[in-house]
C-alpha cells in the first residue's frame, strides 16, 4: 500500500497507543502475529502489515526514528504534502485542457483548520505538514490532507487531456446532507469534466486502504460506513440540475493499489454509468468513454459547456 496521510500508523496496526511501553509493544506484536497468521486462518495482507509495522517501531532506534518522522521516507514528505503541484510536466506544445477552480484548495483549508484546532488555539503550530505531526493527528485530520493530495493528483492527470476537454475543480453544490464524515463538511464536487466522451462527475479519494464494489456501492474497512458513490451521485445531481444538463458518468478515482481492477463498473445512477477507476487509468477512461455512457458531440458539446460556464459556482 502506498504511503498516505491516512495509512494506518505502525501503532494502529499493532493496536497500541503511541505511548505504549516496549513490553506492551512486544506483547501486541506477538498477539497480532498469532491473530493474523494465514496458517491460523488470518489474513495474509494484515500479517504482512504487522511485520512491516514491527520493522518500523520494533527497536528503540527504529521507533525513535519513526516518532521523529525520519524513517521510511524516500522523499521529504512534508514538502510533498505542503506543495500543491497541479500542473503535469509538459512534453509537447499542444494546447492543454481548459481548467477552472482550485483543486484540493478547500480540503487543504479544512486540514489546516482542523490541525490548528487540534493543536490548540493560539499554540505555535510550526510546520503543519511535518510528517510526525501529521501521523500523530486524528484520522479526520489525516483524511482531510489525503483528500487534498488526491484531488491535486487527479488534477495533474486531467491537465493532460487536451483542448477538447473542459474541467472545473472544487465545484460548489447544494448536496451537503445524507453524507458522512469529512464529505458532509465539504459539500463540493471535486472535479467536473466535459469532453467528447461525455460529462463526468469525479470524486478523488484516498482512504489509506483497499476498497471494492458490492451492490452498487464501494465497501472497505477504511470506509467506516461511508457511501461514497451515493454522496457523489447527490453532488452530481445538484450541479446537473442547476445547469440543466445530464451527467453521463460518475467516477471515483483512487490510488492504483487501492483497487484490484483498473476500471470496475459499479452500476448506474439516474442514467449515469458509475465506476471505480485507478488513477493511472483515468485519462484513458475520459478519452475513450465507458461502456453504456452517452457521448456528447458537436453543437451539443458547446451548449453543455455554455450552460456549465454560466451556472458553475466554486466552493
UniProtKB/TrEMBL annotation:
Residues 60-80 are annotated as: Disordered. It comes from the Bacteria. SUPFAM superfamilies: Chaperone J-domain. Gene3D superfamilies: DnaJ domain (1.10.287.110). It holds the Pfam family DnaJ. Residues 9-70 form the J domain. InterPro entries: Diphthamide-biosynth_chaperone, DnaJ_domain, J_dom_sf. PANTHER family: DNAJ DOMAIN (PROKARYOTIC HEAT SHOCK PROTEIN)-RELATED, J DOMAIN-CONTAINING PROTEIN. This is Molecular chaperone DnaJ.
Amino acid at each position: 500500500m502506498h504511503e498516505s496521510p491516512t495509512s494506518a500508523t505502525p501503532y494502529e496496526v499493532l493496536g497500541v497507543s503511541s505511548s505504549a511501553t516496549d513490553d506492551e509493544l512486544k506483547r501486541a506484536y506477538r498477539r497480532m502475529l498469532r491473530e493474523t497468521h494465514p496458517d491460523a486462518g488470518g489474513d495474509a495482507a494484515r500479517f504482512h502489515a504487522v511485520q512491516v509495522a514491527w520493522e518500523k517501531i520494533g527497536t528503540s532506534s527504529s521507533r525513535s526514528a519513526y516518532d521523529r518522522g525520519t524513517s521510511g521516507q524516500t522523499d521529504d514528505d512534508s514538502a510533498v504534502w505542503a506543495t500543491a503541484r497541479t500542473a503535469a510536466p509538459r512534453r509537447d506544445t499542444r494546447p492543454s485542457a481548459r481548467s477552472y477552480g482550485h483543486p484540493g484548495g478547500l480540503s487543504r483549508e479544512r486540514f489546516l483548520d482542523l490541525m490548528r484546532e487540534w493543536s490548540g488555539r493560539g499554540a505555535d503550530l510550526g510546520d503543519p505538514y511535518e510528517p510526525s505531526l501529521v501521523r500523530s493527528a486524528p484520522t479526520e485530520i489525516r483524511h482531510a490532507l489525503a483528500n487534498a493530495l488526491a484531488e491535486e493528483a487527479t488534477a495533474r492527470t486531467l491537465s493532460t487531456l487536451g483542448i477538447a476537454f473542459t474541467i472545473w475543480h472544487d465545484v460548489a453544490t447544494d448536496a451537503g446532507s445524507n453524507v458522512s464524515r469529512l464529505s458532509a463538511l465539504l459539500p463540493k464536487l471535486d472535479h467536473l469534466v466535459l469532453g467528447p466522451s461525455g460529462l463526468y462527475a469525479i470524486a478523488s479519494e484516498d482512504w489509506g486502504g483497499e476498497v471494492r464494489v458490492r451492490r452498487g456501492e464501494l465497501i472497505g474497512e477504511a470506509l467506516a460506513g461511508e457511501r461514497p458513490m451515493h454522496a457523489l451521485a447527490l453532488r452530481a445531481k445538484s450541479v446537473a440540475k442547476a445547469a440543466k444538463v445530464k451527467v453521463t458518468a460518475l467516477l471515483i478515482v483512487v490510488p492504483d493499489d487501492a483497487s484490484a481492477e483498473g476500471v470496475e463498473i459499479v452500476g448506474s445512477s439516474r442514467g449515469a454509468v458509475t465506476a471505480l477507476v485507478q488513477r493511472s487509468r483515468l485519462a484513458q477512461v475520459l478519452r475513450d468513454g465507458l461502456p453504456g455512457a452517452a457521448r456528447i458531440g458537436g453543437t451539443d458539446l458547446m451548449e453543455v459547456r455554455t450552460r456549465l460556464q454560466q451556472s458553475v459556482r466554486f466552493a
